[in-house]
């Protein structure tokens, strides 16, 4: 079991010993640190925080601990109940709140949960702010409110509907065009809040919806990371139902993957590529993704006369670079769409609406749309870490072995070979080294990944 503290929040497994897992004591301590940081930073006692959660089995428990801790500090809490990460992000500025907490471990299995922290803009905290909260959690005592100054919890459980309305009102979302296309779509909500939000959005756009695993009970029917090896059921159902496509989200609805009409993966890397292609046809400008994302976004951006830049991995890094370059769209190759006209956060609902508008406008099949984009293939692997391992030393050794190639050390080590690339980095959320490769065939990408895994294991030996 595990507890991971990072600048973006605290993530861990439920149960076990304190300080080693996400126990009630750890949850309270971290929520208190966040609330204390807000009060000190803002220099005011009347602080408001939005809290929402995905449908994990532990979610209600963790949310009650979090909200009660905040009210004990004298903070007003807006309780969204079952929600999505982008919904909480949208709700923070709409509520004129000072911050937000999303209770979700994203794509991690059901035994995990996390507190993910937002600022008053509904965006993830900067590295400096996150580090300060970690410091408060470890070193400071807390000053809780007296009985007459306790905060209160205000329930507002209609924010998924408000979020959907915001999406439908985006200038580049053409609801009438989507309605006229008569799409039939299978949705896999992995028994979390995507099972609430995505079908609602689709029905508002006149789409026929077939629901698969859309009961928000937290019992994930398969590994919740939306990768090909986990999605056999929806691929089969799309073909059986003769649907136009399938839509898959992770438990907190910030990662988005599509299945084509043949039951084949569109490719989560190409979620951003397709949405960017549509936006760039309507708006000239630049794009941003992270170093582990496909070269295809760069190619599409260049095709439309725009400029592309790559950031370090992590949503906060992508968002910062998007703001610096005034990007019209950006995101991450894991199916995360960030569209500034909506908000600066990964949002699968925005991605679905842009993608379906694009598909309706082109009036082609999903498989035909995929064929329009550059053919790159990725292999995503990982090596489990053991305590005490010198990961930085391992990465430096890899860098030294390939010093004659084009190398970036902005985030881990990325080696750009002429026809392919490999990106090695220590995960911020799991005790692993991630190994991403991309090439012009799947075999080449897989072979390069295995070669790098062997190289790392040789160094570790």
Brief overview, please?
Residues 397-454 form the Alpha-D-phosphohexomutase C-terminal domain. The protein is α/β, with parallel strands linked by helices.
The CATH architecture of the largest domain is 3-Layer(aba) Sandwich
Instruction: Let me know the average pLDDT.
Output: 95
Q: Overall 3D geometry?
A: globular
What share of the residues does DSSP label as strand, in percent?
A: 15-25%
Strand tally, please?
A: 20
Assign the CATH superfamily of the largest domain. Alpha-D-Glucose-1,6-Bisphosphate, subunit A, domain 3
Unreliable runs, pLDDT <50, ≥5 residues? none
- Gap from first CA to last CA: 25 Å
Helix content: 25-40%
Let me know the largest β-sheet: 7 strands, mixed
**Total of helices:** 15
Any idea of the CATH topology of the largest domain? Alpha-D-Glucose-1,6-Bisphosphate, Chain A, domain 3
Rg, nearest Å: 22 Å
Q: Largest beta sheet: what is the strand line-up?
A: 1-2-6-5-3-4-7
Q: What's the CATH class label of the largest domain?
A: Alpha Beta
Q: Structural class per helix/strand content? A: alpha/beta
Number of domains: 3
Organism: Autumnicola tepida
GO molecular function: phosphoglucosamine mutase activity
Family: Belongs to the phosphohexose mutase family.
Domain Alpha-D-phosphohexomutase alpha/beta/alpha: 8-142, 172-263, 270-375
Description of the structure:
This protein has 461 residues and is an alpha/beta fold. The protein has 3 domains: 155 residues, Alpha-D-Glucose-1,6-Bisphosphate, Chain A, domain 3; 209 residues, Alpha-D-Glucose-1,6-Bisphosphate, subunit A, domain 3 (Alpha-D-Glucose-1,6-Bisphosphate, Chain A, domain 3); 84 residues, 2-Layer Sandwich (TATA-Binding Protein). 38% of the residues lie in helices and 22% in strands. It contains 15 helices and 20 strands. It has a 7-stranded mixed sheet, with helices on both faces. A 5-stranded antiparallel sheet has the order 16-20-19-18-17. Helix 1 packs across helix 4 and helix 9 runs parallel beside helix 10. The two termini are 25 Å apart. The model has no long low-confidence stretch (mean pLDDT 95). Its cofactor is Mg(2+). This is Phosphoglucosamine mutase. It is an enzyme of class 5 (isomerase). Its EC number is 5.4.2.10. Belongs to the phosphohexose mutase family.
């Amino acid at each position: 079991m595990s507890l991971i503290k990072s600048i973006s929040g605290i993530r861990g497994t439920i149960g076990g010993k304190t300080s080693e897992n996400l126990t009630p004591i750890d949850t309270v301590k971290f929520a208190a640190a966040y609330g204390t940081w807000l009060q000190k930073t803002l220099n005011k006692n009347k602080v408001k925080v939005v809290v929402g959660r995905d449908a994990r089995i532990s979610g209600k428990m963790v949310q009650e601990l979090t909200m009660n801790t905040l009210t004990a500090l004298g903070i007003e809490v807006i309780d969204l109940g079952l929600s999505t990460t982008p919904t909480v992000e949208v709700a923070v500025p709409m509520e004129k709140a000072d911050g937000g907490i999303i209770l979700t471990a994203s794509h991690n299995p059901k035994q995990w949960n996390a507190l993910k922290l937002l600022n008053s803009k509904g965006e993830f905290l900067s590295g400096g702010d996150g580090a300060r909260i970690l410091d408060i959690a470890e070193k400071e005592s807390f000053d809780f409110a007296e009985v007459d100054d306790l905060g209160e919890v205000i329930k507002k459980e209609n924010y998924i509907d408000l979020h959907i309305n915001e999406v439908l009102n985006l200038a580049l979302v053409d609801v009438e065009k989507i309605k006229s296309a008569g799409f039939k779509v299978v949705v896999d909500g992995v028994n979390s809040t995507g099972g609430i939000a995505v079908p609602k959005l689709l029905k508002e756009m006149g789409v026929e919806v077939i629901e698969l695993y859309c009961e928000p009970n937290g019992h994930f029917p398969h590994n919740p990371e939306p990768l090909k090896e986990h999605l056999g059921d929806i691929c089969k159902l799309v073909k059986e139902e003769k649907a136009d496509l399938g839509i898959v989200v992770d438990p907190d609805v910030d990662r988005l993957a599509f299945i084509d009409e043949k039951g084949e993966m569109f490719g989560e890397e190409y979620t951003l590529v397709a949405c960017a292609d549509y936006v760039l046809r309507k708006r000239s400008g630049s794009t941003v993704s992270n170093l582990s994302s496909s070269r295809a976004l760069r190619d599409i951006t260049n095709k439309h006369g725009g400029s592309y830049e790559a950031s370090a991995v992590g949503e906060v890094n992508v968002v910062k670079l998007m703001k610096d370059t005034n990007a019209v769209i950006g995101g991450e190759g894991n199916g995360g769409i960030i569209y500034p006209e909506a908000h600066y956060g990964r949002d699968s609902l925005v991605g679905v609406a842009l993608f379906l508008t694009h598909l309706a406008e082109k009036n082609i099949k999903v498989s035909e749309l995929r064929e329009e984009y550059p053919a790159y293939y990725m292999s995503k692997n990982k090596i489990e870490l053991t305590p005490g391992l010198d990961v930085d030393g391992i990465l430096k050794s890899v860098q030294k072995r390939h010093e004659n190639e084009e190398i970036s050390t902005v985030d881990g080590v990325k080696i750009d070979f002429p026809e392919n690339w490999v990106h090695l980095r220590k995960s911020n959320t799991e005790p692993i080294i991630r190994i991403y490769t991309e090439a012009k065939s799947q075999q080449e990408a897989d072979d390069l990944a295995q070669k790098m895994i062997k190289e790392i294991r040789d160094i570790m030996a």
